[in-house]
Design brief:
Helix content: 25-40%
CATH superfamily of the largest domain: Creatinase/methionine aminopeptidase superfamily
CATH architecture of the largest domain: Alpha-Beta Complex
CATH class of the largest domain: Alpha Beta
Length: about 625
């Protein structure tokens, strides 16, 4: 057990964390680290990974240890290594040395823990042997972390409130993991021309992680079968027409994770169909990152990704109809079935051992809708939160060949056109994003996302991801990741000269050239841009006055407030007979619709109010 580079201020950081916990709970807390699990016999174990909740307050990955927290103090419980263990594992730090390192107030052998366990709350660990010890020491059955009861539930809510946002030391660790992950992905791209199998590229990527004394935050996904979302097979031969999806992230030696995905062509060049779909996914990726600000609903970011993907697939002729309607009926989920991202921190899916208690704000429930069921995060963004943004496109046979879905979406999917994109099995683009006081910061921005830049990395040429110039509009050079912002800046430059004569018209902007195309018909404006820039990603704006935009925003806020007022008026009565059901409110009429599932309530609401803005609430 060695700690090669423990931060100098670790003890202070840990004191600050437990002081903040003490302000939230008034009972003692015991957290266990867990222990390694045998692979096939006791001495041959899987690599040990301490409980993330333990790590948050203890700082270092101690095995077979526990800490007791109360009123801001920390007591460490662990046994000193036996003299015989030095033969196999080397000299280990003493309990007293570790206690000093983490700023513990006292340290005891593990056998003393039971005498200090009265009234203590805890969180269940993942390994069975430690879980049995938890129940024995606390003299009660410890509920699972995803469904805690009593004071354990109080503790869960307190820890969630602390771990949702990250302190400076945590961000230092995450930045290190992110930098390592970026280097690993670049190594994978550089290794592609000489690689024969997926395993060759995986080896190149994980070699970078190991060389920096880090581990993988999760089993690497390096696959030409990107339609298998968590594919852990690496034996496939690489073929020139393949796309390789690499979802690989480093974990710092202190336990903090990064999570990044890139998709690139094995040949070094995207085919026209691959580039078309890639640019659709990239447009969703950039739009979502541009929307990240404190106060924004993450669910709205997911729905934005759905809409942008639907728009792109309509433009390519794969889907038919209005993109907003396609999202409402979940047609986009045929190709983008998962959520747009998740929390990130000590866990790659941070605190997911707590089920939806961490990912969903209190009072919200996971939807049963095809397009929302896999949404992992449904919270209002706060400064200090770390999230991933990872839209994708997949052709999953189990989804696309499902007879019920074929029937349901027969009028909105052009299956013949889709067949022309058979060389696109799966594409995902994922970055790690910090919510700041003024917007967001992409921690993995050093890894290019533009198709041309990725091709150049594979081909061994110098990339151009450091900045850009928008020509006649005089926009300042900006780092990668701000395409939507660039288009918005262009739009704000030209809006004053267009708004008087063409109010209500649409403007299609190609962000890299700075060119724009105006028409009263949205589709025509986009078509004009496509004619000049077939591989471009035009962004559409509508010419509205500042006053009109402010009015629409105010109307939305009024509707939101009115919807919440209606729900609060009916909530107490309905919860008695419809606990955990979904309520959809139409604020103008005051109508509300109840269903055991969101899709049921939504269908009923849309039948009566096909064009109204609706608000969704959960009775719990």
């Amino acid at each position: 057990m060695y700690f090669p580079s423990v931060p100098a201020n670790l003890a202070k950081t840990l004191r600050d964390r437990r002081s903040r916990l003490a302000a939230l709970v008034d009972f003692p807390v015991i957290l266990w680290s867990g222990r390694s699990t045998p692979r096939n016999y006791p001495a041959n174990t899987f690599p040990f990974r301490a409980s993330s909740h333990f790590l948050y307050f203890a700082g270092i990955p101690l095995e077979y240890a526990a800490i007791r927290l109360e009123a801001g103090s920390l007591e460490l419980f662990m046994d000193d290594a036996s003299p015989a263990s030095a033969l196999w594992h080397g000299e280990m730090p003493k309990r007293s040395e570790i206690a000093q390192l983490i700023g513990a107030d006292a340290a005891f052998p593990l056998a003393k823990l039971a005498s200090r366990a009265a009234r203590a709350a805890t969180l269940a660990v993942q390994d069975a042997s430690t879980y049995l010890q938890q129940c024995e020491v606390l003299n009660r059955l410890v509920s699972l972390a995803s469904s805690p009861l009593g004071i354990d539930l109080e503790l869960v809510r307190a820890i969630i409130s602390l771990r949702l946002t990250h302190d400076a030391d945590a961000l230092t660790e995450v930045r290190q993991a992110a930098a390592c992950t970026v280097a690993a992905h670049k190594a994978g791209m550089a290794a592609t021309p000489g690689a024969k199998t997926e395993a060759d590229i995986r080896a190149a990527m994980e070699a970078v992680i190991i060389s920096r004394n880090m581990t993988c935050a999760y089993p690497s996904i390096v696959s030409v079968h990107g339609e298998v979302l968590h594919n852990e097979q690496y034996h496939h031969q690489l073929q020139p027409g393949d796309l390789l999806l690499a979802d690989v992230g480093a974990e710092s030696h202190m336990g903090w994770a990064s999570d990044v995905t890139r998709t690139w062509p094995v040949s070094g060049t995207f085919s026209p169909t691959q580039r078309d779909i890639y640019n659709v996914v990239l447009a969703a990726h950039d739009a979502c990152i541009d929307k990240i600000h404190a106060g924004v609903e993450y669910r709205d970011i997911h729905l934005l990704a759905c809409k942008v993907i639907a728009e792109g697939l309509v433009d390519l002729g794969i889907l038919r109809g209005d993109p907003e309607y396609l999202v409402e009926i979940d047609a986009h989920a045929l190709f983008f079935p998962h959520g747009v991202g998740h929390l990130l921190g000590l866990d790659v899916h941070d605190m997911e051992d707590l089920g939806d208690l961490a990912g969903y704000e209190e009072g919200r429930a996971r939807s049963d809708r095809f397009g929302l069921n896999y949404l992992r995060l449904n919270r209002v963004l706060q400064p200090g939160m770390l999230v991933t943004i990872e839209p994708g496109f997949y052709q999953v046979p189990a989804i696309l060949n499902n007879s019920d879905r074929r029937l349901k979406f027969q009028d909105v999917v052009n299956w013949e056109r889709l067949a022309q994109f058979a060389d696109v099995r799966g594409i995902r683009i994922e970055d790690d994003v910090l919510v700041t006081e003024t917007g967001s910061e992409i921690l993995t921005a050093a890894l290019p996302t533009q198709a041309n830049d990725i091709e150049q990395l594979i081909q061994g040429e110098r990339t151009s991801n450091v900045g850009w110039t928008a020509g006649k509009f005089g926009l300042k050079s900006q780092p990668r990741g701000g395409y939507m912002k660039r288009c918005r800046e262009i739009f704000e430059k030209i809006r004053p000269q267009l708004i008087e004569e063409r109010s209500g018209w649409f403007v299609a902007i190609e962000g890299y050239s700075g060119d724009y195309f105006v028409d009263a018909d949205k589709a025509v404006a986009k078509q004009k841009a496509r004619q000049k820039y077939p591989e471009g990603r035009p962004v559409i704006f509508q010419l509205k006055s500042v006053e009109q935009e402010a009015k629409e925003k105010a109307e939305y806020e009024v509707g939101d407030q009115r919807g919440r007022e209606i729900f609060e008026q009916i909530r107490d009565e309905l919860i008695k007979t419809h606990y955990n059901c979904i309520v959809i409110v139409e604020p103008e009429s005051g109508d509300y619709f109840i269903g055991s599932k969101e899709s049921v309530a939504l269908k009923n609401a849309r039948e009566k109010h096909p064009h109204s803005r609706l608000y969704v609430f959960c009775l719990n």
